[in-house]
Amino acid sequence: MTSKAETPLEIFLNRHDDEAWRETLAELSPAIHEVDRAATRIWFYFFPLALLRAFEQAEDPHALARELLMQGKWFLKDQVDSSHTFLYGHRLWPEVKRAVARAAEATDATAGRTLGEVVRDVAREVAAARGVDESLATGIAAVGLMTLQQVGLAEFRRTPGEVLIDRRHARRTPEDILRGRARDDGQGLFGFLRTADKRWTVVWDENADDRRFRALDLQEVASGAATDKRPWHEQDPRCTTGEGPIPVQCRSASCGTCWVGALGGAEKLTGVERRERKMMPLFGYIETDETHPLIRLSCQARARGAVSVVIPPWNGYFGKYLKRRGEGAAEEAGEAVASS
Ligand code: FES
Question: Full-prediction pTM beyond 0.90?
Protein backbone atom coordinates (compact mmCIF):
# COMPACT_ATOMS: atom_id res chain seq x y z
CA MET A 1 0.00 0.00 0.00
CA THR A 2 1.54 3.33 -1.01
CA SER A 3 0.22 6.85 -0.96
CA LYS A 4 0.36 8.75 -4.23
CA ALA A 5 0.39 12.52 -4.12
CA GLU A 6 -0.79 13.23 -7.64
CA THR A 7 -2.24 16.70 -7.43
CA PRO A 8 -0.67 19.93 -6.15
CA LEU A 9 -3.22 19.95 -3.31
CA GLU A 10 -2.28 16.42 -2.23
CA ILE A 11 1.43 17.29 -2.39
CA PHE A 12 0.69 20.36 -0.25
CA LEU A 13 -1.38 18.36 2.26
CA ASN A 14 1.30 15.70 2.53
CA ARG A 15 3.68 18.30 3.93
CA HIS A 16 1.48 18.32 7.05
CA ASP A 17 1.59 15.66 9.75
CA ASP A 18 -0.76 15.12 12.70
CA GLU A 19 1.05 17.76 14.74
CA ALA A 20 0.68 20.36 11.95
CA TRP A 21 -3.02 19.53 11.69
CA ARG A 22 -3.45 19.84 15.47
CA GLU A 23 -1.84 23.28 15.40
CA THR A 24 -4.04 24.29 12.47
CA LEU A 25 -7.19 23.12 14.28
CA ALA A 26 -6.16 25.09 17.37
CA GLU A 27 -5.73 28.18 15.22
CA LEU A 28 -9.07 27.57 13.45
CA SER A 29 -10.96 26.76 16.63
CA PRO A 30 -12.59 30.21 17.08
CA ALA A 31 -13.75 30.03 13.45
CA ILE A 32 -15.48 26.65 13.94
CA HIS A 33 -19.09 26.78 15.16
CA GLU A 34 -19.47 25.56 18.73
CA VAL A 35 -21.61 22.65 17.56
CA ASP A 36 -18.59 21.16 15.75
CA ARG A 37 -15.65 22.50 17.76
CA ALA A 38 -15.18 19.39 19.89
CA ALA A 39 -16.48 17.05 17.16
CA THR A 40 -13.81 18.20 14.69
CA ARG A 41 -10.99 17.60 17.17
CA ILE A 42 -12.45 14.21 18.07
CA TRP A 43 -12.60 13.22 14.39
CA PHE A 44 -8.90 14.01 14.01
CA TYR A 45 -8.12 11.84 17.08
CA PHE A 46 -10.15 9.04 15.50
CA PHE A 47 -8.22 9.12 12.21
CA PRO A 48 -4.55 9.85 12.86
CA LEU A 49 -2.32 10.11 9.82
CA ALA A 50 0.56 8.41 11.67
CA LEU A 51 -1.44 5.19 11.95
CA LEU A 52 -2.19 5.15 8.22
CA ARG A 53 1.47 5.81 7.39
CA ALA A 54 2.53 2.92 9.65
CA PHE A 55 0.30 0.59 7.62
CA GLU A 56 1.50 2.02 4.30
CA GLN A 57 5.10 1.40 5.29
CA ALA A 58 4.54 -2.05 6.78
CA GLU A 59 5.92 -5.00 4.84
CA ASP A 60 2.97 -7.08 5.99
CA PRO A 61 -0.04 -4.91 6.93
CA HIS A 62 -2.01 -7.94 8.15
CA ALA A 63 0.78 -8.88 10.55
CA LEU A 64 0.93 -5.27 11.74
CA ALA A 65 -2.83 -5.26 12.36
CA ARG A 66 -2.41 -8.35 14.52
CA GLU A 67 0.57 -6.85 16.37
CA LEU A 68 -1.38 -3.65 17.10
CA LEU A 69 -4.50 -5.60 18.13
CA MET A 70 -6.54 -3.65 15.59
CA GLN A 71 -10.28 -4.23 15.53
CA GLY A 72 -13.04 -2.57 13.51
CA LYS A 73 -12.64 -0.19 10.57
CA TRP A 74 -9.62 2.10 10.83
CA PHE A 75 -8.94 3.01 7.18
CA LEU A 76 -10.70 6.14 6.01
CA LYS A 77 -10.90 4.79 2.46
CA ASP A 78 -13.57 2.38 3.74
CA GLN A 79 -15.68 5.18 5.23
CA VAL A 80 -15.12 8.32 3.15
CA ASP A 81 -18.78 9.39 3.40
CA SER A 82 -19.63 7.93 6.80
CA SER A 83 -16.71 8.67 9.18
CA HIS A 84 -18.09 12.08 10.13
CA THR A 85 -21.83 11.63 10.60
CA PHE A 86 -21.37 12.87 14.18
CA LEU A 87 -20.36 16.33 12.94
CA TYR A 88 -23.14 18.83 12.30
CA GLY A 89 -21.21 19.68 9.14
CA HIS A 90 -21.92 16.20 7.75
CA ARG A 91 -25.07 17.84 6.37
CA LEU A 92 -22.81 19.85 4.06
CA TRP A 93 -20.75 16.85 2.91
CA PRO A 94 -21.92 16.82 -0.77
CA GLU A 95 -20.75 20.42 -1.17
CA VAL A 96 -17.53 19.78 0.80
CA LYS A 97 -16.68 16.89 -1.47
CA ARG A 98 -17.24 18.97 -4.57
CA ALA A 99 -15.21 21.90 -3.22
CA VAL A 100 -12.29 19.69 -2.13
CA ALA A 101 -12.27 17.81 -5.46
CA ARG A 102 -12.31 21.14 -7.34
CA ALA A 103 -9.40 22.42 -5.24
CA ALA A 104 -7.53 19.18 -6.00
CA GLU A 105 -8.03 19.73 -9.72
CA ALA A 106 -6.82 23.34 -9.60
CA THR A 107 -3.16 24.08 -10.17
CA ASP A 108 -2.93 27.02 -7.79
CA ALA A 109 -5.36 26.29 -4.89
CA THR A 110 -2.55 26.38 -2.35
CA ALA A 111 -0.25 29.03 -3.82
CA GLY A 112 1.11 31.06 -0.90
CA ARG A 113 -1.57 29.64 1.40
CA THR A 114 -1.25 28.08 4.84
CA LEU A 115 -3.16 24.91 5.70
CA GLY A 116 -5.62 26.95 7.76
CA GLU A 117 -6.23 29.30 4.83
CA VAL A 118 -6.87 26.38 2.48
CA VAL A 119 -9.42 24.97 4.97
CA ARG A 120 -11.13 28.35 5.12
CA ASP A 121 -11.17 28.68 1.31
CA VAL A 122 -13.06 25.39 1.09
CA ALA A 123 -15.39 26.38 3.95
CA ARG A 124 -16.15 29.71 2.29
CA GLU A 125 -17.08 28.04 -0.98
CA VAL A 126 -19.32 25.50 0.79
CA ALA A 127 -21.01 28.18 2.91
CA ALA A 128 -21.75 30.27 -0.18
CA ALA A 129 -23.15 27.24 -2.05
CA ARG A 130 -25.47 26.33 0.85
CA GLY A 131 -26.23 29.81 2.16
CA VAL A 132 -25.02 29.01 5.68
CA ASP A 133 -22.55 30.65 8.02
CA GLU A 134 -18.95 29.78 7.21
CA SER A 135 -18.39 28.63 10.79
CA LEU A 136 -20.70 25.64 10.13
CA ALA A 137 -18.57 24.52 7.19
CA THR A 138 -15.09 25.01 8.67
CA GLY A 139 -14.81 21.81 10.72
CA ILE A 140 -16.15 19.57 7.96
CA ALA A 141 -13.90 21.33 5.40
CA ALA A 142 -10.87 20.33 7.53
CA VAL A 143 -12.23 16.77 7.68
CA GLY A 144 -12.69 16.76 3.90
CA LEU A 145 -9.11 17.84 3.27
CA MET A 146 -7.65 15.31 5.73
CA THR A 147 -9.78 12.61 4.10
CA LEU A 148 -8.35 13.54 0.69
CA GLN A 149 -4.84 13.45 2.18
CA GLN A 150 -5.39 9.96 3.54
CA VAL A 151 -7.26 8.32 0.67
CA GLY A 152 -6.08 10.14 -2.47
CA LEU A 153 -8.28 11.81 -5.08
CA ALA A 154 -9.44 8.65 -6.88
CA GLU A 155 -10.82 7.04 -3.68
CA PHE A 156 -12.17 10.38 -2.50
CA ARG A 157 -14.20 10.69 -5.68
CA ARG A 158 -15.30 7.06 -5.79
CA THR A 159 -18.11 7.30 -3.22
CA PRO A 160 -21.34 9.19 -3.92
CA GLY A 161 -20.88 11.86 -1.23
CA GLU A 162 -24.30 11.46 0.34
CA VAL A 163 -25.73 12.73 3.60
CA LEU A 164 -26.24 9.56 5.61
CA ILE A 165 -28.49 10.75 8.41
CA ASP A 166 -32.28 10.74 8.18
CA ARG A 167 -34.15 13.84 7.17
CA ARG A 168 -35.67 14.55 10.54
CA HIS A 169 -32.28 14.62 12.23
CA ALA A 170 -30.72 16.45 9.29
CA ARG A 171 -33.25 19.25 9.87
CA ARG A 172 -32.11 19.84 13.46
CA THR A 173 -30.46 23.22 13.93
CA PRO A 174 -27.08 23.68 15.62
CA GLU A 175 -28.94 25.37 18.47
CA ASP A 176 -31.23 22.32 18.92
CA ILE A 177 -28.20 20.10 19.17
CA LEU A 178 -26.37 22.37 21.61
CA ARG A 179 -29.51 22.63 23.76
CA GLY A 180 -29.79 18.84 23.79
CA ARG A 181 -26.19 18.48 24.91
CA ALA A 182 -26.57 21.06 27.66
CA ARG A 183 -29.71 19.45 29.12
CA ASP A 184 -29.27 17.45 32.32
CA ASP A 185 -31.78 14.88 33.51
CA GLY A 186 -34.32 16.16 36.01
CA GLN A 187 -34.27 13.94 39.07
CA GLY A 188 -37.92 14.40 40.03
CA LEU A 189 -39.51 16.56 42.71
CA PHE A 190 -37.17 15.44 45.46
CA GLY A 191 -34.16 15.06 43.19
CA PHE A 192 -32.06 17.20 45.53
CA LEU A 193 -32.43 14.43 48.13
CA ARG A 194 -31.21 11.75 45.76
CA THR A 195 -27.62 10.70 45.91
CA ALA A 196 -26.52 7.34 44.53
CA ASP A 197 -29.75 6.67 42.62
CA LYS A 198 -29.47 9.72 40.37
CA ARG A 199 -29.42 8.64 36.74
CA TRP A 200 -27.89 10.38 33.75
CA THR A 201 -28.64 9.99 30.07
CA VAL A 202 -25.68 9.07 27.89
CA VAL A 203 -26.39 9.68 24.21
CA TRP A 204 -24.00 7.78 21.93
CA ASP A 205 -25.47 8.76 18.56
CA GLU A 206 -27.18 12.12 18.25
CA ASN A 207 -28.69 11.06 14.91
CA ALA A 208 -30.90 8.27 16.29
CA ASP A 209 -33.37 8.62 19.15
CA ASP A 210 -32.88 5.08 20.50
CA ARG A 211 -29.11 5.31 20.83
CA ARG A 212 -28.89 6.30 24.45
CA PHE A 213 -28.75 4.62 27.84
CA ARG A 214 -28.86 5.66 31.46
CA ALA A 215 -25.93 5.53 33.87
CA LEU A 216 -26.20 5.80 37.63
CA ASP A 217 -24.49 8.76 39.25
CA LEU A 218 -20.75 8.06 39.29
CA GLN A 219 -21.15 4.82 37.35
CA GLU A 220 -18.53 4.09 34.66
CA VAL A 221 -20.01 4.98 31.27
CA ALA A 222 -19.23 1.48 29.90
CA SER A 223 -21.05 -0.12 32.85
CA GLY A 224 -24.08 2.08 32.18
CA ALA A 225 -23.94 0.96 28.52
CA ALA A 226 -23.95 -2.70 29.59
CA THR A 227 -27.47 -2.27 31.00
CA ASP A 228 -28.69 -1.96 27.39
CA LYS A 229 -29.25 -5.58 26.39
CA ARG A 230 -30.21 -5.00 22.77
CA PRO A 231 -28.12 -6.95 20.19
CA TRP A 232 -25.66 -4.19 19.32
CA HIS A 233 -23.09 -6.82 18.30
CA GLU A 234 -25.16 -7.30 15.15
CA GLN A 235 -24.21 -3.75 14.13
CA ASP A 236 -20.68 -3.60 15.52
CA PRO A 237 -18.98 -7.01 15.74
CA ARG A 238 -16.59 -5.59 18.34
CA CYS A 239 -19.45 -5.48 20.83
CA THR A 240 -19.99 -8.44 23.11
CA THR A 241 -23.49 -9.93 23.22
CA GLY A 242 -25.49 -8.35 26.02
CA GLU A 243 -22.73 -5.90 27.01
CA GLY A 244 -24.24 -2.84 25.37
CA PRO A 245 -23.26 -0.62 22.43
CA ILE A 246 -19.73 0.29 23.60
CA PRO A 247 -17.12 -2.40 22.83
CA VAL A 248 -15.32 -3.48 26.02
CA GLN A 249 -12.88 -6.18 27.05
CA CYS A 250 -10.83 -5.66 30.20
CA ARG A 251 -12.79 -2.90 32.00
CA SER A 252 -9.52 -1.94 33.72
CA ALA A 253 -7.81 0.50 31.30
CA SER A 254 -5.59 -2.26 29.91
CA CYS A 255 -6.88 -3.01 26.41
CA GLY A 256 -8.01 0.34 24.91
CA THR A 257 -11.19 -1.16 23.43
CA CYS A 258 -13.69 1.15 25.09
CA TRP A 259 -12.48 4.58 23.99
CA VAL A 260 -15.04 7.27 23.18
CA GLY A 261 -15.09 10.94 22.23
CA ALA A 262 -17.01 13.37 24.45
CA LEU A 263 -19.02 15.55 22.06
CA GLY A 264 -20.84 17.29 24.87
CA GLY A 265 -20.39 17.26 28.64
CA ALA A 266 -16.70 16.24 28.87
CA GLU A 267 -16.63 18.21 32.12
CA LYS A 268 -19.53 16.12 33.47
CA LEU A 269 -17.37 13.01 33.44
CA THR A 270 -15.05 12.39 36.39
CA GLY A 271 -11.50 13.58 35.77
CA VAL A 272 -8.76 11.40 34.31
CA GLU A 273 -7.00 9.37 36.97
CA ARG A 274 -3.51 7.91 37.06
CA ARG A 275 -4.07 4.63 35.19
CA GLU A 276 -6.09 6.16 32.33
CA ARG A 277 -3.51 8.93 31.98
CA LYS A 278 -0.67 6.43 31.82
CA MET A 279 -2.34 4.12 29.29
CA MET A 280 -3.80 6.61 26.76
CA PRO A 281 -0.45 7.48 25.11
CA LEU A 282 0.41 3.76 24.93
CA PHE A 283 -2.83 3.08 23.09
CA GLY A 284 -2.01 6.10 20.90
CA TYR A 285 -5.38 7.81 21.31
CA ILE A 286 -4.37 11.03 23.07
CA GLU A 287 -1.51 12.49 25.11
CA THR A 288 -2.62 15.37 27.29
CA ASP A 289 -2.47 16.75 30.82
CA GLU A 290 -6.09 17.92 30.67
CA THR A 291 -8.34 16.72 33.48
CA HIS A 292 -11.39 16.47 31.20
CA PRO A 293 -10.08 15.70 27.70
CA LEU A 294 -12.30 14.94 24.72
CA ILE A 295 -11.05 11.36 24.42
CA ARG A 296 -11.77 9.00 27.32
CA LEU A 297 -11.80 5.35 28.27
CA SER A 298 -15.43 4.66 29.02
CA CYS A 299 -14.54 1.94 31.53
CA GLN A 300 -12.81 4.62 33.62
CA ALA A 301 -14.83 7.82 33.06
CA ARG A 302 -17.79 8.02 35.43
CA ALA A 303 -20.94 10.04 34.74
CA ARG A 304 -21.79 13.03 36.92
CA GLY A 305 -24.35 14.44 34.49
CA ALA A 306 -25.88 13.84 31.06
CA VAL A 307 -23.29 13.50 28.30
CA SER A 308 -23.11 12.94 24.57
CA VAL A 309 -20.39 10.63 23.35
CA VAL A 310 -19.33 9.11 20.04
CA ILE A 311 -17.92 5.61 19.63
CA PRO A 312 -14.99 5.32 17.20
CA PRO A 313 -15.30 2.60 14.54
CA TRP A 314 -12.08 0.85 15.62
CA ASN A 315 -9.67 0.30 18.48
CA GLY A 316 -6.05 -0.75 18.76
CA TYR A 317 -2.85 -0.47 20.75
CA PHE A 318 -0.50 1.53 18.54
CA GLY A 319 0.98 4.43 20.53
CA LYS A 320 3.85 2.38 21.92
CA TYR A 321 4.64 1.01 18.44
CA LEU A 322 4.71 4.46 16.83
CA LYS A 323 6.96 5.84 19.58
CA ARG A 324 9.38 2.94 19.15
CA ARG A 325 9.45 3.49 15.37
CA GLY A 326 9.97 7.23 15.83
CA GLU A 327 12.88 6.61 18.20
CA GLY A 328 14.37 4.04 15.77
CA ALA A 329 14.17 6.53 12.89
CA ALA A 330 15.76 9.27 15.04
CA GLU A 331 18.60 6.90 16.01
CA GLU A 332 19.19 5.94 12.37
CA ALA A 333 19.29 9.61 11.38
CA GLY A 334 21.77 10.29 14.21
CA GLU A 335 24.01 7.41 13.11
CA ALA A 336 23.91 8.61 9.51
CA VAL A 337 24.99 12.11 10.60
CA ALA A 338 27.75 10.68 12.83
CA SER A 339 29.19 8.47 10.07
CA SER A 340 29.07 11.20 7.39
S1 FES B 1 -12.40 -2.06 28.43
FE2 FES B 1 -10.26 -2.28 28.28
S3 FES B 1 -9.56 -0.23 28.46
FE4 FES B 1 -11.69 -0.08 28.87
Answer: yes
